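[job 4417] fold queue: 2 targets
>>> target A
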Amino acid sequence: MATTSDIRNGLCLNYNNDIYVVTKFQHVKPGKGAAFVRTKLKSITSGKVIDVTFSAGHKIDDVRVERRKYQYLYKDDSGYHFMNMETYEQVFLNENMLPHPEFLKEGDSVDILFHAGNETPLLAEMPQHIVLEVTYTEPGVKGDTATNAQKPATVETGAEIRVPLFINIGDKVKILTETGEYMERVK
């Protein structure tokens, strides 16, 4: 058991018979009254985000998780298959356990969080950014570069993103995996 003073970003806890991860928290000490902690909790199973306020000193049931490095192998009807880089043990995850599976390409490594008590996979964490090659995009029109205009582009995994007009087929681009936004062109 932990208390509200142990709350931090990334902490996993049992709440309402589900496992949640703390995505944001704020400790508040008003001028009048007792202190409390405002949190945003994201359900690991459904992805639903809820706002929860705990009073100071409230006991919370934290969940011990282990982070392990896995390599993405392939996708089939049963899900996304990954291999442990040390033991070569394979595990598969459902699509809802991956934040943005459209950016995964074979050979990429991800961190998979496991419930330490019963060894079940909870979710996968993608790298913060990923470099992919543009396989299709319309050519940019010369003279349209004065504004921050963007055009659609398809990358090697099949995902569609928005890129600046100067990006061409064959260019490698760095993408922020959390939002799917273009960051920069990579040489």
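>>> target B
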Amino acid sequence: MYKEEQQILLRIFLKDKYKIKGKPVYTLLLEEFMKNNISGATVFHGIAGYGDSKIIHSAGILDSSDSLPILIEICDSEDNINKVLEITKEVFEKAKVGGFLTYEKVHTILFNK
């Protein structure tokens, strides 16, 4: 059995070094998403990347960068994605961090057990 529908895929890009009171911002975001009944979110930890600074940060054997990329992906209804956008704006402002978001309409197929 499966269900097909149109949803919004949201991607949140930030750095792993971003913290509020010692807690990673991505963890705070996940906790807030769960409290607001967002269907699910996945955090990906990048091994290398660069942004506006044009400085490449990487997780090599000999170096230990504390500025690696984090990507959070969420696929949900437009209403729930709008909640996520507001939560993310509030957390980014509170943490005084930068980042960026992208979103697009997607066709999803959910397979049930």
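[job 4417] complete. Note on B: The mean pLDDT is 91.
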